[in-house]
Amino acid sequence: MREPNHVFFMRQAYNEALRALEIDDVPIGCVIERGGEIIAAGYNRRNAEKSTLRHAELIAIEEACRAEGDWRLEGCGIYVTVEPCPMCAGAILQARMSFLAFGAENPKAGCAGSVCNLLRQPGFNHKVEVVPGIMREECAALMREYFKRFRA
Which of 3, 16, 33, 57 is catalytic? Predict the structure, then answer.
Protein backbone atom coordinates (compact mmCIF):
# COMPACT_ATOMS: atom_id res chain seq x y z
CA MET A 1 0.00 0.00 0.00
CA ARG A 2 1.32 3.42 -0.98
CA GLU A 3 2.04 5.98 1.75
CA PRO A 4 -0.46 8.85 1.62
CA ASN A 5 0.82 12.35 0.83
CA HIS A 6 0.48 13.75 4.34
CA VAL A 7 1.40 17.31 3.37
CA PHE A 8 -1.19 17.41 0.57
CA PHE A 9 -3.99 16.30 2.88
CA MET A 10 -2.87 18.56 5.73
CA ARG A 11 -2.86 21.48 3.31
CA GLN A 12 -6.54 20.69 2.60
CA ALA A 13 -7.25 20.55 6.35
CA TYR A 14 -5.45 23.88 6.74
CA ASN A 15 -7.72 25.38 4.07
CA GLU A 16 -10.70 24.18 6.13
CA ALA A 17 -9.18 25.88 9.20
CA LEU A 18 -9.07 29.14 7.22
CA ARG A 19 -12.83 28.78 6.70
CA ALA A 20 -13.28 28.67 10.49
CA LEU A 21 -11.11 31.76 10.82
CA GLU A 22 -13.36 33.57 8.31
CA ILE A 23 -16.33 33.11 10.66
CA ASP A 24 -14.30 34.03 13.77
CA ASP A 25 -14.20 30.49 15.07
CA VAL A 26 -11.16 28.65 16.41
CA PRO A 27 -9.22 27.80 13.22
CA ILE A 28 -9.16 24.04 13.25
CA GLY A 29 -9.76 22.15 10.03
CA CYS A 30 -10.04 18.50 9.14
CA VAL A 31 -10.26 16.20 6.13
CA ILE A 32 -10.81 12.46 5.93
CA GLU A 33 -9.35 10.40 3.12
CA ARG A 34 -9.78 6.90 1.85
CA GLY A 35 -7.50 5.51 -0.82
CA GLY A 36 -6.02 8.91 -1.60
CA GLU A 37 -9.38 10.64 -2.10
CA ILE A 38 -10.95 13.14 0.28
CA ILE A 39 -14.36 11.82 1.33
CA ALA A 40 -15.20 14.44 3.99
CA ALA A 41 -14.10 17.77 5.41
CA GLY A 42 -15.00 19.99 8.31
CA TYR A 43 -14.00 23.08 10.21
CA ASN A 44 -14.78 24.33 13.70
CA ARG A 45 -18.21 25.90 14.10
CA ARG A 46 -18.54 25.79 17.91
CA ASN A 47 -18.86 29.55 18.29
CA ALA A 48 -20.88 30.07 15.12
CA GLU A 49 -23.45 27.40 16.03
CA LYS A 50 -23.16 27.76 19.82
CA SER A 51 -22.57 24.03 20.24
CA THR A 52 -19.86 22.14 22.09
CA LEU A 53 -20.20 19.36 19.52
CA ARG A 54 -19.36 21.34 16.37
CA HIS A 55 -15.67 20.44 16.28
CA ALA A 56 -14.02 20.03 12.88
CA GLU A 57 -13.38 16.32 13.45
CA LEU A 58 -16.96 15.50 14.45
CA ILE A 59 -18.36 17.38 11.47
CA ALA A 60 -16.00 15.53 9.10
CA ILE A 61 -16.65 12.14 10.72
CA GLU A 62 -20.40 12.64 10.38
CA GLU A 63 -19.98 13.53 6.70
CA ALA A 64 -17.66 10.56 6.11
CA CYS A 65 -20.15 8.16 7.70
CA ARG A 66 -22.85 9.44 5.36
CA ALA A 67 -20.50 9.13 2.36
CA GLU A 68 -19.46 5.59 3.32
CA GLY A 69 -22.91 4.47 4.43
CA ASP A 70 -21.49 3.10 7.68
CA TRP A 71 -20.27 4.25 11.08
CA ARG A 72 -17.08 2.23 10.66
CA LEU A 73 -14.39 4.21 8.86
CA GLU A 74 -11.75 1.48 8.77
CA GLY A 75 -9.16 2.21 6.12
CA CYS A 76 -9.69 5.96 6.41
CA GLY A 77 -7.15 8.52 7.56
CA ILE A 78 -8.05 11.76 9.31
CA TYR A 79 -5.99 14.94 9.06
CA VAL A 80 -6.50 17.66 11.65
CA THR A 81 -4.60 20.92 12.00
CA VAL A 82 -4.51 20.63 15.82
CA GLU A 83 -4.18 17.54 18.00
CA PRO A 84 -7.68 16.30 18.88
CA CYS A 85 -9.35 16.85 22.25
CA PRO A 86 -10.70 13.89 24.29
CA MET A 87 -14.12 14.03 22.62
CA CYS A 88 -12.69 14.01 19.10
CA ALA A 89 -10.00 11.43 19.86
CA GLY A 90 -12.76 9.21 21.24
CA ALA A 91 -14.84 9.66 18.08
CA ILE A 92 -11.82 8.81 15.90
CA LEU A 93 -11.27 5.67 17.96
CA GLN A 94 -14.95 4.70 17.87
CA ALA A 95 -15.06 5.17 14.08
CA ARG A 96 -12.22 2.62 13.80
CA MET A 97 -10.10 4.95 11.67
CA SER A 98 -6.70 3.67 10.55
CA PHE A 99 -4.62 6.74 11.31
CA LEU A 100 -4.64 10.31 12.51
CA ALA A 101 -2.21 12.92 11.23
CA PHE A 102 -2.19 16.25 13.03
CA GLY A 103 -0.31 19.52 12.75
CA ALA A 104 0.15 21.42 16.01
CA GLU A 105 0.25 19.83 19.44
CA ASN A 106 -2.46 20.76 21.94
CA PRO A 107 -0.65 20.84 25.31
CA LYS A 108 -3.81 21.72 27.28
CA ALA A 109 -6.26 19.17 25.87
CA GLY A 110 -4.54 16.98 23.28
CA CYS A 111 -5.40 13.29 23.50
CA ALA A 112 -3.11 11.93 20.80
CA GLY A 113 0.04 12.24 22.89
CA SER A 114 0.20 15.62 24.66
CA VAL A 115 -2.02 15.13 27.73
CA CYS A 116 -2.67 11.45 27.04
CA ASN A 117 -3.03 9.16 24.05
CA LEU A 118 -6.52 7.70 23.86
CA LEU A 119 -5.76 6.34 20.40
CA ARG A 120 -3.11 3.91 21.63
CA GLN A 121 -4.58 2.89 25.01
CA PRO A 122 -3.84 -0.77 25.71
CA GLY A 123 -7.34 -1.53 27.02
CA PHE A 124 -9.27 -0.50 23.91
CA ASN A 125 -10.05 -3.01 21.18
CA HIS A 126 -8.86 -0.69 18.40
CA LYS A 127 -5.65 1.30 17.95
CA VAL A 128 -5.13 4.30 15.67
CA GLU A 129 -1.71 5.09 14.24
CA VAL A 130 -0.71 8.67 15.10
CA VAL A 131 1.43 10.82 12.78
CA PRO A 132 2.20 14.11 14.57
CA GLY A 133 3.71 17.35 13.33
CA ILE A 134 2.58 17.58 9.70
CA MET A 135 2.84 21.33 8.86
CA ARG A 136 3.34 21.93 12.60
CA GLU A 137 4.60 25.51 12.29
CA GLU A 138 1.88 26.70 9.89
CA CYS A 139 -0.88 25.15 12.00
CA ALA A 140 0.51 26.55 15.25
CA ALA A 141 0.94 30.01 13.70
CA LEU A 142 -2.70 30.03 12.64
CA MET A 143 -3.78 29.27 16.20
CA ARG A 144 -1.47 31.97 17.62
CA GLU A 145 -2.87 34.50 15.14
CA TYR A 146 -6.44 33.66 16.12
CA PHE A 147 -5.86 33.91 19.88
CA LYS A 148 -3.84 37.10 19.52
CA ARG A 149 -6.77 38.64 17.62
CA PHE A 150 -9.30 37.10 20.03
CA ARG A 151 -7.60 38.60 23.08
CA ALA A 152 -7.16 42.06 21.51
Answer: 57
